[in-house]
Amino acid sequence: MIVRSETPGDIAAIRLVEEVAFGRSAEAQLVDDLRAAGDSVYSLVAVDDGTVVGHALFSRMKAPFPALALAPVAVLPEYRRTGFASRLIRQGITRSETAGWLGIFVLGDPAFYRRFGFDVGKASGFFSPYAGPHLMVLPLGKKELPTDTGIIAHAPAFAKLG
User: Fold this and answer.
1) CA distance linking residue 138 with residue 46, whole number of Å
2) Residue ranges per domain, the chain?
């Protein structure tokens, strides 16, 4: 298995992974919309034996410091619990930190994302339509955020998810 940046030839496979993983097309459309708007920063694919089996997208967002949103993360059902999602997320975190981003926000299951260092408590001071028990943040660089309060806004494409 390898993790690499998406290429134009991966777009149809990414759409399929997103649709199958989520059982609907909304997340696949989100990826397309983020890409079309220029808000995609890192779009990573997990490839096994030449087939795209997983995908993770890191996109621009507004925050009091340079921050990214991690969403969606998708792996085909038969590849779940094999480490593919973890490798996608870890590679995205490494790229983000190397590039100088100071934080990554994610909406998801705290039990899953906690293993990467995402923290619900550190996100609790940020105002967002998505604020709540599933909004988490991972500080990058110095391991502390420059501020623990403020307004954050995901890219406009997220509003279509409802």
Assistant:
1) 22
2) 2-161
**Contacts for 72 with CB less than 8 Å, ≥ 6 apart:** 18, 22, 27, 30, 31, 55, 56, 57
Per-residue pLDDT of the chain in tens (162 residues, 90 and over written 9): 899 999 999 999 999 999 999 999 999 999 999 999 999 999 999 999 999 999 999 999 999 999 999 999 999 999 998 999 999 999 999 999 999 999 999 999 999 999 999 999 999 999 999 999 999 999 998 779 999 999 999 999 999 886
Residues facing residue 51 across a β-bridge: 48
Q: Considering the domain 2-161, what is its CATH architecture? A: 3-Layer(aba) Sandwich (3.40)
| Both structure tokens of 6 | 């998406």
Phi-psi group of 50: left, alpha or beta (phi > 0 → left; psi -120 to 50 → alpha; rest → beta): left
Q: Is the pTM of this model over 0.85?
A: yes
